[in-house]
Amino acid sequence: MIRPARNHPGFWAFVAHRVSGVALALFLPLHFLVLGLALESGDALDRTLAVADRPVFKIAEWGLVVLLTIHLCAGLRVMALEFLPWRDTRKGLIGIGAVTALLVGALFMLRVG
């Protein structure tokens, strides 16, 4: 049974912030591996970039940009709730963060696609 607090938008903003943070933490070692390939040799980097030019990687790139935006917006929301005197705009901050993440993702897809 889902408790009523878990149906609140604030709970889902919390979940999105944590899940995006974990996903980004899992991505970073792969990113560092590719950067290491660039230091190792230009050929290794070129081969990796050729693989990364496939559509599945373009979709993953879009997902990464959306995750970064979600994590940023949710983090800013938490900071605003902690440091600013107003507290009645929580749902508004969550909505602004969600819309911002979708807009950034859409702009990224238009630029890449």
Task: Draw up the topology in text.
Layout: H1 9-40, H2 42-51, H3 55-83, H4 90-112
Helix pairs in contact: 1-2, 1-3, 3-4
List its traits:
single chain; 113 residues; mainly alpha; 83% helix
Outline the structure in words.
There is one protein chain. The chain has 113 residues and is mainly alpha-helical. It has helices at 9-40, 42-51, 55-83, 90-112. Helix 3 (55-83) packs antiparallel against helix 4.
Briefly, what is this?
This protein is mainly alpha-helical and 113 residues long.
Q: What are the low-pLDDT stretches, counting only 5+ consecutive residues below 50?
A: none
Largest sheet: none
Mean pLDDT: 82
Order of helices and strands, N to C? HHHH
